[in-house]
Automatic annotation (TrEMBL), chains A, B:
One of its GO terms (biological process) is methylation. Residues 72-226 form the Ribosomal RNA small subunit methyltransferase E methyltransferase domain. Belongs to the RNA methyltransferase RsmE family. This is Ribosomal RNA small subunit methyltransferase E. It is an enzyme of class 2 (transferase). Its main location: cytoplasm.
Length: 231, 231
């Protein structure tokens, strides 16, 4: 379902010329549904009821919303996670899927425990994600993406990095105006160069408390904190 | 270290007659340190510098605070968790220890996957907690407590129960005025009678998002949400 920003979520939403053009570019027709969001965290489903040059009307469709929402977060959440040794990633992928990750980006990091992942292992992780999505009644199976070097990775929206000693809280950044990526490093932690590279590009370091977490626990704490906000 | 409530955390805290009497009851002497907290979530360490009938002065001791704090939550957090089949509890105990649980109370629930735990298995869980406490640099090893029936369990302070469909958020209840217990059920969920019993006794149902979580993931999401607040 396409996503269309509206000035305000209402039972009846009248769009001006720019937004109407956007609907036309999407080749939407009267009767079709789109996800509507106000950019401030509220979202729903709107059904297109009028469409003419320069003007369109969407009406809230609460029934479609209930089924469209499924169990997904308001904006997609990517988990960017360092490659880990042995079978640890299987547990991470399974729980991350339950906890709402829409995408799992594997990372090669400076202090990595592992620098590559076999094709068979990647296939297995994808099967685990698919099975976990089914069991947790999600409508989306997170894509498990082949590893990239951390300092070559790319993201849209907000990037939050679990970092020992950080003061900011993940809940300070959950306005859902943009996609979200949460990143956690390998057992040895991120290198100073990696942290500097990320923060220069606008990443926010967030706390996971004063204890030392294993590399396979940190991603679940990050995603658990989001889920515990009701998302 | 004793805990003393103060009107407000400050570099110099002057206590009136009631609070001074409390210090005297604790037999504190000038030069000794106490934990001070304001009942609204802020806490620190104060050193007693003046003590006379009806009046006492505490001065913040930031150095003592850093070492006293260790990696513990402001109030002890108990994880009350249903018995689970197989080796699932081992993973829960390990991660719960990293995430700051001070006590792990095992529960026998109506829809339990398991109704008892062998002595050897309990010993093993305790060993796992001890090892995880060491690795996560905690000063406290959580006690793993033999199972009790949920409807006979007892708790001090606030009880938060992970429950599908709940609207309240765990972060709404983290004022740290009292010990905290977070409870999560077995794979089949809590029974209606159990939920009613808990809520009649003041338990608060909290959300972990709209997805179905496995019984071994929910406790980590609860504790992860607390850790992500910096505790």
């Amino acid at each position: 379902m396409h996503r269309v920003q509206v000035p305000e979520l209402a039972e009846r939403m009248v769009l001006g010329p720019q937004d109407t053009r956007h609907l036309q570019v999407l080749r939407l027709r009267v009767g079709e549904c789109v996800q509507v969001f106000d950019g401030r965290g509220a979202q729903g489903v709107g059904r297109l009821t009028e469409l003419e040059p320069g003007r369109a009307v969407l009406e809230r469709d609460h029934q479609a919303q209930a089924s469209a929402r499924g169990a997904e977060t308001p904006q997609p959440v990517t988990l960017a996670v360092a490659l880990l040794k042995g079978d640890k990633l299987a547990d991470v992928v399974r729980a991350a899927t339950e906890l709402g990750a829409a995408r799992i980006q594997l990372l090669v990091t400076a202090h990595a425990e592992a620098r590559e992942i076999g094709a068979q292992k990647l296939v297995r992780l994808r099967r685990i994600a698919s099975e976990a999505a089914r069991q947790s009644e999600r409508s989306v199976t997170p894509e498990v993406v082949e590893p990239v070097r951390l300092m070559e990775c790319d993201w849209q929206g907000t990037l939050l990095v679990a970092h020992p000693g950080a003061q900011a809280r993940i809940t300070d950044f959950l306005s859902w105006e943009a996609p979200l990526t949460v990143l956690s490093g390998p057992e040895g932690g991120l290198s100073e160069a990696e942290v500097a590279w990320l923060t220069e590009r606008g990443a926010q370091a967030v706390t996971l408390g004063p204890r030392i977490l294993r590399a396979e626990t940190a991603p679940l704490a990050l995603l658990g904190a989001i889920a515990a906000q009701g998302q």
